[in-house]
Amino acid sequence: MVTARTLSTAEARREAVVSSAIASFAKGGFQGTTIADVAAHAAISPAYVSKLYNKVQLFVAALDECYQRILTAIAEGADEAEADAMPAEVLHAMGGAYAELVADRDLLMLQVHAQAATNVPEIAGAVRRGVARVTDYAQTRSRAADTEVQQFIAFGQLCHLLTTIDAFDVDAAWAAALTAGVRHTTPAPRARKIRRT
Questions:
Q1: Complete DSSP assignment for the chain
Q2: Per-residue pLDDT tens for 39-64?
Q3: What is the CATH number of the domain that holds 121?
């Protein structure tokens, strides 16, 4: 039997800070969010947060956690695929699990803001590292060809774009063209699930 590890107070606070950083940076972006904003969200003093991280380190920690949550979700999605599933079916299951993960939009918006802040070398490195981990895992676990994995990642980026601009709610030819073959549900206010059909 595996027992859960008990976090020390310092570890619990660090986790609370990183979770609050995800929510805060998702809302305000890298430039528009301060350490004080994150501290207020975490109900921890700004001085304590500043002891743990500077702003760049805090954003990178949030982004690293974002990608870790993505990896965990797509692994769970892959586990739900049949043992003899074709590579495309495994990728599809991974995509469905990812869509459920980002339904609240914080992880989605953090990635959008991270891409906009890649002029900061540490953030660019964290984005590359995260994309590399997701791509490597998707390819290894699904046994898909490079072109299939490329399409999987590209489809995910299209879904990001469609969700961030609320294209599913636009009644126009361009929106119909981009959303064709993509369906979504709304599990909560301001949230969307996106899946391949």
A1: -PPPPPPPHHHHHHHHHHHHHHHHHHHHHHHH--HHHHHHHHTS-HHHHHHH--HHHHHHHHHHHHHHHHHHHHHHHHHHS-TT--HHHHHHHHHHHHHHHGGGSHHHHHHHHHHHTTTSHHHHHHHHHHHHHHHHHHHHHH---HHHHHHHHHHHHHHHHHHHTTGGG--SHHHHHHHTTEEEE-SSTT--EEEE-
A2: 999 999 999 999 999 999 999 999 99
A3: 1.10.357
